[in-house]
Write a structure and sequence with these properties.
about 350 residues, alpha/beta, Aspartate Aminotransferase, domain 2, Aspartate Aminotransferase, domain 1, 7-stranded mixed beta sheet, globular
């Protein structure tokens, strides 16, 4: 079976050599030296001022909402992983869905202002597949209406826009370091802010609101362990190699697929991509299901990423219409993409797709 994704694992000896430092100290959680080292190296790699390594990519979104005091309406995208919507509901906010741009699949910044009400407090947007949102237009809107901006950058590690990391935009950006991501710590995530006071607030939230025996605020447990940090420290130096390998696979798909009958999202010219996913958009859901079945018959797994459109989730009360998202979510499929996917397998995948369409 060719899986849709495959976790990158460094040589076991490299991982255990780093982990041994924590093992020898007997300090494996509560902000040990590996966690602190990983945070410092991630700041350097991403060229950001404030970054906190946390337990997963969902809890960092929850902390972002809490740190910015967001409790009412939040304008958000219907085309994202369900966590983007779930955190809003979990924190008692009201998601207000704004349709996506049919080319980039990110939230359509031109439609945001029409959705703003007296109860709107923030914009929560996703850099879909690492494609940048219209960060400049969103920033203008946010300043005009005194709104906070949170970017779900779960897909955007290593992606840049105009030379800056995508994680450096917004009041807060978050990232997932789940095992399926380009950079991972098995489980994990990070929260980034250029505001030192805001970062201090989140630092307290991450560890029950206390430092040592002194309590400063409410908080939760969003810490991560030395075991997870060791994985990150192993993988971070290999990012150029990993992204290069993924680019070669991405380019091979581009050369072999029949783009007379399928489409791709549009990638921003001023951005650097991380080749995290290979999404294709078919002419109809019927064709997608036919292709998916043909691939599965050949032991090739795919993922309907993202499906369904989040405004249509069964537990959403306000199901406002988002035509582009509803349409495209039925027709988009992510193909297998991981560092050591073989050339012959890429050809086989493309042949099955081209024959089925």
């Amino acid at each position: 079976m060719i899986n849709v994704t495959k976790t990158y694992l460094p040589p076991f000896e490299e991982y255990t050599a780093i982990l041994k430092r924590a093992w020898d100290k007997g300090w494996i959680t509560n902000n040990g030296e590996l966690v602190l080292e990983l945070e410092a190296k991630l700041k350097e790699y991403l060229k950001v001022n404030e970054l906190l390594f946390c337990s997963n990519g969902t809890i960092v979104l929850q902390m972002a909402l809490k740190a910015l005091n967001i409790t009412k309406e939040v304008i958000t995208t219907p085309f994202s992983y369900v966590a983007t919507t779930n955190v809003l509901l979990w924190e008692g906010c009201t998601p207000v869905f704004v349709d996506i741009d049919a080319k980039t699949l990110c939230i359509d910044a031109n439609k945001i202002e029409a959705a703003i009400t007296k109860d709107t407090e923030a914009i929560l947007a996703t850099h879909v597949y690492g494609i940048p949102c219209d960060v400049e237009k969103i920033d203008v809107i946010a300043q005009k209406h005194n709104l906070k901006v949170i970017y779900d950058a779960a897909h955007a590690f290593g992606c840049t826009y105009k030379g800056k990391s995508l994680l450096s935009y917004g009041d807060i950006s978050t990232c997932s370091f789940h095992a399926t991501k380009v950079f991972h710590t098995v489980e994990g995530g990070c929260i980034v802010s250029n505001d030192e006071a805001l970062a201090r607030k989140v630092l307290l939230y991450r560890s029950f609101g206390h430092i040592g025996d002194d309590y400063f605020s409410m908080g939760i447990n969003a810490k991560n362990s030395e075991l997870n940090a060791a994985m990150g420290l192993c993988i971070l130096p290999k990012m150029e190699e990993i992204i290069s390998a993924r680019k070669n696979i991405f380019d091979a798909y581009c050369q072999l697929l029949n783009f007379k009958k399928i489409q791709q999202p549009q990638f921003e010219k001023n951005s650097q991509h991380n080749y995290s996913y290979y999404p294709v958009i078919f002419s109809s859901e019927e064709i997608l299901l036919k292709v998916r079945a043909a691939l599965l018959a050949n032991n090739i797994s795919t993922r309907r990423y993202f499906y369904p459109s989040l405004n249509q989730l069964p537990f959403i009360v306000k199901k406002n219409k988002c035509q582009n998202s509803e349409n495209i979510s039925k027709r988009v499929l992510s193909l297998p993409l991981f560092e050591d996917l073989k050339e012959n397998d890429i050809k086989r995948i493309c042949n099955v797709i081209n024959e089925a369409i």
